[in-house]
Write a structure and sequence with these properties.
Layout (H helix, E strand, L loop, with lengths): L1 H4 L5 H12 L1 H4 L4 H17 L5 H7 L9 H22 L5 E10 L2 E8 L9 H6 L20 H13 L3 E6 L6 E9 L4 E10 L6 E9 L9 H11 L4 E5 L5 E4 L22 H10 L5 H8 L5 H11 L12 H13 L15 H11 L4 E6 L3 E3 L2 E11 L10 E6 L2 E3 L7 H8 L19 E9 L16 H53 L3 H18 L6 H9 L32 H6 L1 H14 L1
Parallel strand pairs: 1-7, 12-14
Antiparallel strand pairs: 1-2, 2-6, 3-4, 3-6, 4-5, 7-8, 9-11, 10-11, 11-14, 12-13
Helix pairs in contact: 6-8, 9-14, 12-13, 15-16, 16-17, 16-18
Bound molecules: adenosine-5'-triphosphate and magnesium ion.
Length: 619
């Protein structure tokens, strides 16, 4: 092309012009040496540029996966193995029975053993699951589970290998009639591939299940961020599991299940169009099997029927019969804009399994020695197209410390979150609730103080963690709002109890004053007015009766406990008189500024059915 443009010049000039155009630097007056130097530097840099395996990356950045100090490393390793074990049992429809053992190997080394009675893992998959980072069954599906990233257990194997050089030892069996497969595995970090050190078939007196054994450098400590606490909290929010836990001091604790009922099987859903961004939409369009845009939208997303497709296409100036693979980047942008302008029904929410308010309370009662318990489960809501449910619970009084700030127990899909409390949306929400109205002390926007434990749980098909270490929940406004509403719901019940308790204590105080001072008044009257003993006793009794009557005797400790036993206490409150004057109104309670069309959700149900029938017909 350059020769064509320069065609009117004579040969020499033309050549010179070509060189100059090909190398504008010469045109700009840079020396040949300078140009050579620049080129060779870039070549030298190019020789060092190469692929980085994900395993090499995390080898250097282990803190991103929760292995930044030895204490946390022990917790993270146990957590990844136990979460997987419970997920596997639940997916296999089996009531989980998990054995966890930590053995002190001395010199800062520990051996961890986690064994489950789950469905087991087929032989071919064992090496990839345990010794290849980013390999798993949960990442590509929108389904509520503890794990989601496909990196948890292999990251633990990597840490174990880095700190002790010893292989992870895995055994797994899928049925009583099948053999148990045994593997010793390392990760080839350069290739991010499993390296099989040993492979065998062994005797294992178990019908099915998986056992993981790893050695690692770690520190064992009790306390709020230790393994003991993680196990205890896991038992609180998973009343259907049994955990047999032996700590490094060889102390065994059995957390026996209190419910024989498995949570309902989690349902997988397709993404909701509102939650899909341009890059992901482009990728989905590139790999879809659908022949037309209409088919694509109806088959790959939830809540898109024929009517919605028509509207989306009108709003994005595209045709339903357009071929997905022909759409350019500009088209994808228009499509996203069109989706945003179309009112769509909220994603289905029956795919979320809350713990339920009742079981949260049972769990709290089982593990915490308090005098008052309450809990709440919010209706489902949506962030970035992902459905979620928030639940909260409070334990109050009893053995809990009155002077300290309250303890916040955070859970995501029934997994306790023990680190990064300050960075978590749950903590922010607790701070933003006005707890003074509910009987706890609080300085502005801080964690309240008083004898209480607050539980917050998020259940979602995709939990928005702030990092791969899965320690804190991101601050999506929809999530923060729901947490606050759940806390306020519990807070109101707590407030009723606390104000009732305060009143009863004041009553008790007055009663004791009466009992203390009346005999003195009687004696004084006897002396001043000259009453006889009989008259003194009579005046004492009359005064006592008058004072007792004038006290508003509206309850006793027996009635107070009724507040606690009544799960609906606070809603219909004739036991308690009318303490509502003590309570603030939560202005935002129950209101919802969803971007979703809730009215559409109700009225369009029929339409969905129709659309689904059409969809079936169209395919
Ligand atoms: N004990 C087990 N029994 C059966 N399958 C298991 C077990 N442990 C792991 N798996 C399988 O191995 C996969 C990888 O586990 P891994 O912990 O690495 O990732 P994940 O659980 O999918 O996500 P995350 O990284 O969030 O934990 C899981 O998705 C699951 O399919
Ligand atoms: Mg996992």
């Amino acid at each position: 092309m350059s020769q064509k443009i320069l065609g009117t010049f004579d040969d020499e000039k033309e050549e010179d012009a070509i060189v100059k155009e090909e190398n504008p630097a010469v045109q700009e007056g840079f020396s040949e040496e300078y140009i050579q130097e620049r080129k060779s530097k870039a070549q030298e840099m190019a020789s060092k540029q190469r692929d980085i395996s994900v395993a090499e990356f995390f080898e250097k950045n282990r803190h991103l996966l929760g292995f930044d100090n030895p204490r946390k490393a022990l917790l993270t390793t146990i957590k990844e193995a136990v979460d997987n074990a419970i997920d596997a049992c639940e997916e296999g429809g089996l009531l989980p029975e998990i054995i966890v053992e930590i053995i002190d190997m001395q010199n800062g080394r520990f051996r961890i053993i986690v064994e489950d009675n789950g469905p087991g893992i087929v032989k071919k998959q064992i090496p990839n699951i345990f010794a290849k980072l980013l390999y798993g069954s949960k990442f590509h599906s929108l389904k509520q589970s503890r794990g989601q990233q496909g990196i948890g257990i292999s990251a633990a194997v990597l840490y174990s290998q880095l700190t002790t050089g010893r292989p992870a030892k895995i055994r797994s069996k899928i049925a009583p009639t099948e053999p148990a497969h045994y593997f010793e595995l390392h990760i080839d970090t350069q290739k991010n591939k499993p390296e099989i050190i040993k492979e065998d078939i062994i005797e294992w007196k178990k019908d099915h299940g998986t056992r993981v054994e790893m050695d690692l450098e770690a520190t064992y400590q009790k306390g709020a961020q230790g393994v003991d606490e993680y196990i205890k909290q896991t038992a609180i929010v998973n009343p259907h599991i049994t955990i047999i836990y032996t700590n490094p001091k060889a102390e065994q604790t059995i957390f026996a299940r209190v419910s024989e009922q498995l949570p309902p099987q989690a349902k997988e859903i397709k993404p909701h169009p509102y939650g899909v961004e341009i890059g992901r939409m482009a990728k989905m369009l590139a790999i879809t099997q659908a022949k037309t845009l209409q088919q694509f939208l109806m088959s790959e997303f939830s809540r898109v029927g024929a009517k919605a497709v028509k509207e989306i296409c009108e709003n994005s100036a595209l045709l339903p019969k357009d071929k997905p693979s022909n759409l350019t980047r500009q088209h994808v942008e228009k499509l996203i804009k069109g989706i945003k302008e179309t009112k769509l029904i909220s994603p289905p929410t029956d795919c979320i399994n809350p713990i339920t308010a009742e079981l949260i309370e049972i769990g709290l009662r089982k593990e915490i020695n308090a005098e008052f318990f309450c809990s709440a489960t919010r209706p489902p809501n949506v962030y970035r197209g992902n459905p979620f449910i928030i639940e909260a619970g409070i334990a109050y009084g009893g053995d809990l410390d009155k002077e300290k700030t309250i303890r916040i127990m955070r859970f995501a899909n029934r997994v306790p979150l023990l680190y990064q409390q300050g960075a978590c949306a749950m903590t922010q929400s607790v701070q933003e609730v006005s707890w003074r109205s509910y009987g706890l002390s609080q300085s502005q926007n801080s964690i309240p103080a008083g004898p209480a434990v607050v539980v917050v749980h998020i259940a979602s098909v995709w939990t928005p963690y702030t990092s791969e270490a899965k320690e804190a929940i991101a601050h999506y406004p929809e999530i923060v709002k729901e947490i606050k509403l759940a806390l306020q719901e519990c807070g109101r019940k707590l407030g009723l109890y606390v104000s009732k308790k305060r009143r009863i204590m004041e009553e008790g105080k007055k009663k004791s004053y009466i009992e203390k001072y009346l005999p003195h008044i009687g004696a004084a009257l006897k002396e001043i007015v000259g009453f006889s003993d009989v008259e003194e006793r009579r005046i004492h009794d009359i005064l006592k009766e008058i004072l007792e009557k004038s006290r508003k005797a509206d309850g006793g400790l027996g009635r107070l406990s009724a507040v606690n036993d009544d799960p609906g206490a606070g809603e219909d409150d004739d036991i308690l008189g009318d303490p509502s004057d003590d309570m603030p109104e939560d202005s935002d309670d129950g209101s919802s500024d969803d971007s979703y069309d809730d009215s559409a959700e109700e009225t369009d149900d029929e339409e969905i059915e129709d659309e689904e029938t059409e969809r079936g017909a169209g395919q």
